[in-house]
Design brief:
This protein is mainly beta. The protein folds into two domains: 104 residues, Beta Barrel (OB fold (Dihydrolipoamide Acetyltransferase, E2P)), CATH 2.40.50.140; 40 residues, no CATH class. It contains two helices and eight strands. The strands form two sheets. The chain has a five-stranded mixed beta barrel with strand order 1-3-4-6-5. β2 and β3 form a beta hairpin. The radius of gyration is 22 Å and the shape is globular.
């Protein structure tokens, strides 16, 4: 059976909760709200129509990034697998919830600006070292920062001469 993927635009409506599974996998979740906005002429104001609330779950590196990047009220675009869950309530009734396992998400740049900071990939080896982190550190020492590069007519993008 095909899994349905959805993309929603809305806002974070709860604090981000972070946990770790028994296997040591980080997971973060938060409530997300989305609704259609319509102008009500009788009230002379914009109103939310048919709001939908879902729980968004993020795993592994995305969970770590979400925990340090999102806050309640942030405007987001969320894309992921839609899940419809059924569970039994304490009062004996049945309840349903909509959940999204996020594949991608980000701040809604139609409603604000943002600055992207790439997180280094971590690759643990049998000896416990972080190979990618070591490589990135070595490259950072050898390669000049992009801000110190300059363009000329002869060479469109080259490292700037150092003042050493």
């Amino acid at each position: 059976m095909n899994e349905p993927y959805v993309t929603l635009v809305g806002n974070v409506v709860s604090e981000v909760r972070r946990a770790t599974t028994e296997a040591g996998v980080p997971v973060a979740s938060f409530r997300f709200g989305s609704s259609t906005r319509r102008y009500d002429r009788a009230q002379g104001a914009w109103i939310d129509v048919d709001p939908i609330y879902v729980t968004v779950s993020c795993w592994r590196t995305m969970a770590e990034n979400v925990t340090s990047s999102l806050g309640k009220g942030d405007p987001l675009v969320v894309h992921g697998r839609l899940r419809h869950r059924r569970y039994d309530r304490e009062d004996g009734g049945t309840a349903y919830s909509l959940e999204i396992d996020a594949v991608a998400l980000g701040h809604d740049l139609a409603r604000g600006t943002g600055v992207f900071r790439r997180t280094p990939r971590r690759v643990e080896t049998a000896g416990g070292s972080d190979v990618a982190g070591e490589l990135a550190a070595g490259l950072a020492e050898e390669e000049p920062a992009i801000a110190s590069w300059e363009a000329t007519e002869d060479a469109p993008l080259t490292p700037a001469a150092s003042a050493a």
